[in-house]
């Protein structure tokens, strides 16, 4: 058990350095040798844990998922009212906090590989499905508690993530911070509308759909 934990810790350390190097130099320009140089270790030690750069990339995508799923931690805390948890998740999805969880350039570099590698395509599919399923589950809990009136939680989660994905893809092209802030608020309000929430402040305070 101890050896396995040590191995996982070492692998995670390598993946984090891989992320930092690839963020700076680009995925295509990052090699095992460059990662080893930054870590000040022999490349053979990295190869001991990841035989190829492809294996490292797979681990990096798993790392992406783990970081994104952190946004749902609040929904697991039974001390926090459901309506507050839902609003917090939606607010976080449409915030710079979400956008900065993982570097956009690196995310899309990995995403581009889905068109060439079936395994990475499946990994990204599992990643996006996991994010939607977690949101759908939270929406369903709120619906069961009669806090919101949503006919199809899974479809609603899909539509909210369609807004999220489209918003950030479009807004990464903008260099105007004010435009980013204004449009992200517009998209968030639309997400509230899909949930039947027309006054987020009142919803959070009373727990009732307005």
Description:
- The protein is mainly α and 210 residues long.
- It has 2 domains: 2-51, Arc Repressor Mutant, subunit A (Orthogonal Bundle), CATH 1.10.10; 69-206, Tetracycline Repressor, domain 2, CATH 1.10.357.10.
- Helices cover 72% and strands 0% of the residues.
- It has 11 helices and no strands.
- The chain has helices spanning 2-25, 32-39, 43-49, 53-69, 82-93, 96-99, 104-112, 118-144, 153-171, 177-194, 200-206.
- Helix 1 (2-25) crosses helix 4 and helix 9 runs antiparallel to helix 10.
- The protein starts with a helix and ends with a helix.
- 23% of the residues are buried.
- The model has no long low-confidence stretch (mean pLDDT 86).
Question: What topology emerges from the helices and strands here?
Answer:
Blueprint (H helix, E strand, L loop, with lengths): L1 H24 L6 H8 L3 H7 L3 H17 L12 H12 L2 H4 L4 H9 L5 H27 L8 H19 L5 H18 L5 H7 L4
Keywords:
210 residues; mainly alpha; Arc Repressor Mutant, subunit A; Tetracycline Repressor, domain 2; 11 helices
Concise synopsis of the structure shown:
The protein has 210 residues and is mainly alpha-helical. The chain contains 11 helices and no strands.
The helicity comes to over 70%
CATH topology of the largest domain: Tetracycline Repressor, domain 2
Tally of DSSP helical segments:
11
Order of helices and strands: HHHHHHHHHHH
Class inferred from helices and paired strands? mainly alpha
């Amino acid at each position: 058990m101890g050896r396995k934990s040590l191995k996982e810790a070492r692998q995670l350390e390598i993946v984090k350095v891989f992320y930092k190097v690839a963020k700076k130099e680009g995925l295509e320009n990052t090699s095992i040798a460059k990662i080893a140089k930054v870590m000040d270790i022999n490349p053979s030690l990295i190869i001991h844990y990841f035989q190829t750069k492809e294996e490292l990339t797979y681990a990096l995508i798993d790392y992406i998922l783990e970081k994104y799923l952190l946004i749902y931690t609040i929904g697991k805390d039974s001390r926090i009212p459901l309506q507050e948890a839902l609003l917090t998740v939606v607010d976080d999805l449409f915030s710079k906090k979400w956008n900065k969880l993982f570097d956009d350039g690196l995310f899309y570099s990995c995403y581009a590989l889905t068109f060439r590698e079936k395994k990475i395509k499946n990994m990204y599919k599992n990643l996006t499905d996991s994010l939607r399923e977690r949101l759908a589950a939270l929406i369903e809990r709120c619906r069961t508690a009669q806090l919101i009136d949503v006919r199809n939680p899974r479809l609603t989660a899909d539509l909210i993530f369609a807004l999220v994905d489209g918003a950030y893809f479009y807004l990464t092209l903008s260099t105007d911070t004010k435009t980013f802030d204004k449009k992200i608020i517009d998209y968030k309000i639309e997400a509230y509308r899909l949930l039947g929430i027309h006054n987020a402040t009142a919803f959070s305070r009373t727990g009732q759909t307005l």
